[in-house]
Amino acid sequence: MTQTSALTRKRSFLRSVLLLGVGIVLAGAAGGQLLADDAAVDVAAAGSVVNGAVRDGAAIDGQAIDASSFISVPQQQQAFLTDMSGNALDEVVERIFFSMSARARPEFQNNTTDFASDTNDEVEFVSARFRIGLGAELPGNTTLFMELQNNSFWGDDEPFFDADAVGDEDDVKFYQGYVQVDELFDTNFGFKMGRQELVYGTQLLLGNNEFNTGLSHDAVKVYYEGENLSVDAFWSKLVEAELADPTDEDADLWGVYTQWEGQPGTGLDLYWLFTRDARNGFDDKRHSLGVRAYTRLADMLNLNGEAVWQFGDTGATDTNIRAFAIETTAELDLREQLPLDPRIEVGYALATGDPDPTDSRAETFNPLFQYNHERLGYADLLFLTNLHALHAKGTVQVHENYSLGAAFYLFYVHRTADTTQPAGFSPGTDPTSSKYVGSELDVFLNFQCTKNVYGQLAWAHFFTGGYTSAQFGHSHADANRLYLHLIVAF
Questions:
Q1: Contact (CB, 8 A) for 429 and 398
Q2: Vertex 285 angle, CA 279 and 290, to 5°
Q3: pLDDT tens digits, one per residue of 148-199
């Protein structure tokens, strides 16, 4: 026998041993799995016989053998998702839901800040907003929800210099985060606690500023939901100033909002709001009593009217607050009667200004958290305060996914002597000037690309009036705004 032949046989033997070992390991694993899956195996009795060789109390080489060590004992598999106590998530959560939206709005603006043609204030930019929400429905009619939001402008983080062009880093904040319990103790009452939107009526005083950055409140709300009647009572901490300065005071909002709807499209809202802003030694205590009525007649005419009276005290000398606002709209809805689904709306609104800032009355209406975008034109130049506003608006459905519309607004200042409103128009610099602030023409296209992709293309042109020209001390210079508002959401 040669040395080479011996070496070859050794290698063949080693390969055979290796293959045999692999086969034993695989067979053992398969056998263990079969035992684990076999519901007939009684673990308690399994130690008596294994392959007819090992019995309870038997020994090999004088060592006692535990037969259960030869058997793969089935273990209860833990759920992949659990709560803090290890309970399977489907045992403690009835439903989990997600929400997500992304908004980008490229736009162009010109003369929207100074209404002057002799200065270069043309701007082009893209604003963006991203939201992501996560919610869970728990037993007991309980819902937990949190929503993160980021607002930014494209290019405000400079990639070449690793710096923020607007001076601070983009941040992600909790836009909403609350717990809500419905049908508390099997009644029609419930509560909602945490950061949340407070949106009521036509958003004359309480809105969510949806078109821009959004608006939410740190609030507690208790509510009643009946068949035709609902009542909300809430408190919101607007500003917590005492943590930064113990000598300062906070800003708070209290409210009760009642809604009754006798039939679809016809109802009555009654509400009381109280705001107190005691920051920086300035104490404004303001009550707002409001009523809103709406109805739908002949299945084609929608009428809406709202009136608000404000009273209280403001300032270091407790000047009496005496202000009010009214708003009315009438919409002719001909979608069931005519092709192209036309809709025509006209409206008038008034909010008081102060005719004499030196007397003992404060008569400027405070719009609080008003949502003004669709209310006073797409240029977003005005809020309803110290203002008369008239408008006419119409839309037609030119395609299944597209509607075309136009609107025209007329604006007049209520009191030319008011030194605070309308903001952005240098009020009070010429109290003898014309009351005509200006007019605005809006042309827009609403589109729905898919169920989750929609938006608006709009152009707004503001024609400056005599009041605006006198306040800024130069000739008329119109303002323009053009934007594409695109949303992807689910």
A1: no
A2: 135
A3: 999 999 987 766 555 555 545 568 999 999 999 999 999 999 999 999 999 9
Report d(CA 292, CA 271) in Å as an integer: 9
At 360 the three-state DSSP class reads coil
Compute CA 229 distance to the chain's CA centroid, rounded to the nearest angstrom: 25
Pure H helices in 245-337 = none
Amino acid at 145: F
- Residue 455 near residue 476, CB atoms below 8 Å: no
Q: How confident is the model at residue 124 (pLDDT cuts 50, 70, 90)?
A: very high
CB contact at 8 A, 332 and 301: yes
Q: pLDDT (tens digit, 9 = 90+) per residue, 31-68?
A: 444 334 444 334 333 333 333 333 344 444 444 444 44
Average pLDDT of 257-263?
95
- Give the global pTM: 0.80
Cα–Cα nearest to 427, from 319, 334, 353: 353
Could you report how far apart the first and last alpha carbons of the chain are, in Å? 81
Angle at 482 between CA 476 and CA 485, to 5 degrees: 150
Tally Cβ neighbours within 10 Å of residue 159: 7
Query: With bands split at pLDDT 50, 70 and 90, how would you rate the model's confidence at 440?
Result: very high
Structural element, H or E, at residue 484: strand 479-489
For the chain, give the percent of residues with pLDDT over 70: 80
Q: 3-state DSSP call for residue 225? A: strand
Strands 163-164 and 402-413: unpaired
d(CA 36, CA 33): 5
Q: Coil, strand, or helix at residue 105?
A: strand
Cβ pair 117, 101 in contact under 8 A: no
Distance between CA atoms of 44 and 322, rounded to whole angstroms?
86
At residue 123, φ and ψ (nearest 5 deg) are -135, 140
Asked if residues 43 and 50 have their Cβ atoms less than 8 Å apart, the reply is: no
Query: Quick one: pLDDT at residue 76?
Result: 59
Q: What confidence score (pLDDT) does residue 349 get?
A: 98
For residue 464, is pLDDT > 70? Answer: yes
SS3 of residue 67 by DSSP:
helix
Q: What's the gap between Cα 338 and its chain centre?
A: 36
